[in-house]
Amino acid sequence: MRSKAELKGKPFPVGIRGWVLISAILVGLWAWLYLGLSPRQLLPGDASSIGRFLAAALSPALDSQDPGLGEAVRYIVLQNALHGLGRTVLFAAASLLLSILGGFVLGFLATSTWWAGDTITSRGPLRRLLRQVFGPTVSATAKILATLLRSVHELFWALIFLAAFGSGPLTGVLALALPFAGTLGKIYAEMLEESPSAPSKALRDLGATRLQVFFFGRLPAAFPDMMAYTLYRFECALRSSAVLGFFGYPTIGYFLKLSFENLYYSEVWTYLYGLFLLIFLVDAWSGTLRRRLAT
Amino acid sequence: MSADPKVQDRIVYDLQEVSQRYNSTTALDSVSLTITSGEILAIVGPSGSGKSTLLRILAGAQRPSTGHVMIRGRMLRDYSPTTLRELRAATGFIHQDHRLVPGLRVSQNVLLGRLGQSSLMASWRSFLFPSRSELLEAHEVLERVGIEEKLFERSDRLSGGQQQRVAIARALYQAPCTLLADEPIASLDPIRSRDILKLLTEVAAERGLTLVLSMHDLALAREFCPRLIGLRHGQVDFDKSSSDVTQTDLDQLYRLEGKERIEDRAIQG
Amino acid sequence: MTALASERMTQIEQLRRDRPRSRFLRWSLSAFVLLLVLSLFSGEFGFEQVFSPRRLQNLENFLTETLPPPIRRGEGLAAGLAWASDILMSPKGFPALGKTLAISILSILLAFFVAILLTPPGSRSLACPEPYLPGLASAKGVRSFLWNVCLHFCRFFYVFLRAIPEYIWAFLLIQMFGFSAWPAILALAIHNSGILGKLFSETVENLPPESTIALRGIGAGRAQLFWFSLFPTGLSRFLVYFFYRWETCIRESTVLGMLGIVSLGYYINDAQATINTPEMLFLIFLGSGLVLLGDLFSALIRYLVRHAN
Question: How does pLDDT run across B115-171, given as a tens digit for each residue?
């Protein structure tokens, strides 16, 4: 209990959390002024087109709204949606596979506990150099590389690859895979480092080499967490691969953008509903799976 | 020690004036002892008396600050990484907290016992696709510790006593010459403690293993181990056959002094 | 094989058949792995085309154009630095970075506000007829049904909010509100309030209930329970999530500029459209610097908040 005198000086004690909240709101005020925002900007410019867009939510289209095409090809929008969603899944899956491989290698190199080994076998000058200089250097380099890969957004990677190679599905996959590999590498390394170390020490005591300790001690202990996180990243990959369509890759975003620019709002809603359904199903499935993995 | 050449051949561990210091604290203070092949003995003493350090040195997991450690006729400092791996592969180590790899099945945990004897590829093979003979052997050691029906269960779903049994089975699967057990019963209730001790001593006798246990419980140690070594403040207090250990020895071993005593009063009062 | 061994083998086979396993888990994981592997070899992504002569020519052009013009012309490092500082001082540099930062801050604040309001009706422990009265819990009756509807509606709403990517939200909102910063802020806020809402609700459900039960015992209502017990107890975790999501907001708000909102992405897109590769790379590099700084700052605050008490 604080004494009365102490409380007198501080009528309302504010902890660190309180200060964080207050300064966040102050910084928010700065941001508001800096951007020169005013609520008036929220008044829609063209009210009727917004009305038409929102009204179209109730009548998603299966056939094309293009009068020239509408009756000629039945269910073209539905077909496009299925194709687009299929490609969205393919892009996400392919890039996730690449990023799992890359992330695993990065995570493996970045796991500092692996390099530490134990003191008794690392006595020669060469081994000491390996343990004290080479190991930490590799581990830090891998961590920095993972952070750098992650700090560039996948759409910027896509821009860079477009400039370097020209368009093509593989460049899109690579653009997604690089930042995802960085994220996975960072998180894998954290999970491997935080996994209980006692079982690994026991394996060391019965004569296992460093690599054996890593694969049969650390990895199995961290595996359920790593798996759960990878499933979560699959959801993110689906969203990112949908957006990649805006850059000309044949995922759902491509069709969405095209229809919107032609003002075919009912088509837009079909694609939106499709994307929502896909994410919803994957979310429900991976949520159940993650709960099962956790127990 | 004994000049008899036969005994000389059978010496597994020979420690002379072994001390271990960590920064300012002394864990072991010039300990000398010999252990011959097939002996079953317990190291007893209060917490912090250096029992764990001593066992880790015997296991080849740690080098002492000073003193000579001879294991199987070779000085510990002369072990190369390769021969050290062989030494560890031939030494079973059982911990208080069993230290099984969580998330793996019992069979996988048992098969990990031979990591020290196999290459990385071979251990991947037996981890993913265990052969018939490997499964047969694993089943056999699990039967010896009495839980063969748990062969394919997840090891982290077992009870504490069962997990300790799996750890013993893993050590048996390893087919070691020596079994070291650091406080194997510290987290078990009295009945299970007795079971585990009985199991360990019987198995060691059956297979002619050298068994070194460390523990708190003097009554149990006297009951199961023919030889007791009392450790106090890192020094050997007594080293006798259990029938020769007197009540004074034991009182001496566990007496409180100075600050400890005052703290103890404070708790009681 | 001896009779004993074969008897043992049949026992082992029996144990293997009876081993505890989850069919759902096994099928799901196998299907997932199969999907990943097959996708790469679906014929959709040709490897051979990467190294076609045209592409290699492309790559060569790209690599020669990467260096800043003054350095390419051999005018030395000083000229290169002058080039860089010119960009930094122009509207493409610090002002764009500031706007990107401001958008991320406003959007995460808005998301936090919305998520906090959605949390009580979206938490299982509050959205029930008798919250925090363990003895009185009953799963039947109209009131219980209505609360269940409310709970699942909120949960569904979270998924709806976060299912559509920020970029698509922003794309749609721009058509409604024009090119102010609002579409970016709203898009980020919508997506993140879905994510924060889910995380906050789970946090509230997992908080130790003792103090809330005590408050309930003296007759507090749902709002009082939330604001005077659950909110203060969970605040540390809320703030940790808040800063985690802020990091991703910075990342995303640089990108949203590509739709025409004046953040860093706008100038990056511009540089790409005018094939000014060195400037594009430099601006992307600036953006990743901002993201890294944000990560560092957020890690520091999260550390402080975690160790506050």
Answer: 989 999 999 999 999 999 999 999 999 998 888 888 898 888 888 889 999 999 999
The whole model's pTM is what? 0.86
Q: What is the ipTM of this complex?
A: 0.86
CA C7/CA C9 separation, integer angstroms: 5
How many degrees, rounded to 5, is the angle at CA C159 between CA C156 and CA C164?
Answer: 135
* Nearest-by-Cβ selection for B139 from C8, C19, C20: C8
Structure confidence at residue A11 (pLDDT) = 53
B66-71 and B74-75 strand pairing: antiparallel
Partners of B132 on chain C (C-beta within 8 Å) are 9
What are the Cα distances from residue C130, in Å, to A33, C116, C136, C149, C205? 45, 21, 7, 15, 15
Q: Are B180 and B55 in contact (CB under 8 A)?
A: yes
**Which domain range does residue B232 map to?**
1-85+225-269
Q: Is residue B108 part of a domain?
A: no
Nearest Cα residue in chain A from B56: A205
Residue written as token pair 């052009």 = C61
The count of domains in chain C is 1
Express each pLDDT in A263-286 by its tens digit: 888 889 999 999 999 999 998 898
- Per the CB < 8 A criterion, the answer to whether A285 and A276 are in contact is no
User: Does the residue C74 lie in any domain?
Assistant: no
Is A110 domain-assigned? yes
Which amino acid is residue A244, in one-letter code?
A: L
Q: How many domains does chain A have?
A: 1
Residue C220 lies in a domain: yes
Is the pLDDT assigned to residue A3 strictly greater than 60? no
Shortest distance, CA C63 to any CA of chain B (angstroms): 42
Query: In which element (H, E) is residue B182 found?
Result: strand B178-182
- Which of A111-115, B216-220, C203-207 bottoms out in mean pLDDT, i.e. has the lowest? A111-115
**Number of DSSP helices (H) and strands (E) in chain A, helices first:** 14, 0
Burial B52-80 (b: 16+ CB within 10 A, else e): bbbbbbbbbbbbbeebebbbbeeebeebe
CATH at residue C261: 1.10.3720.10
Is residue B154 one of the residues assigned to a domain?
Answer: no
Q: Which CATH number do you get for residue A145?
A: 1.10.3720.10
Looking at CA atoms only, how far is residue B200 from chain C in angstroms? Answer: 24
Task: With respect to residue A8, please indicate whether it lies within any of the assigned structural domains.
Answer: no
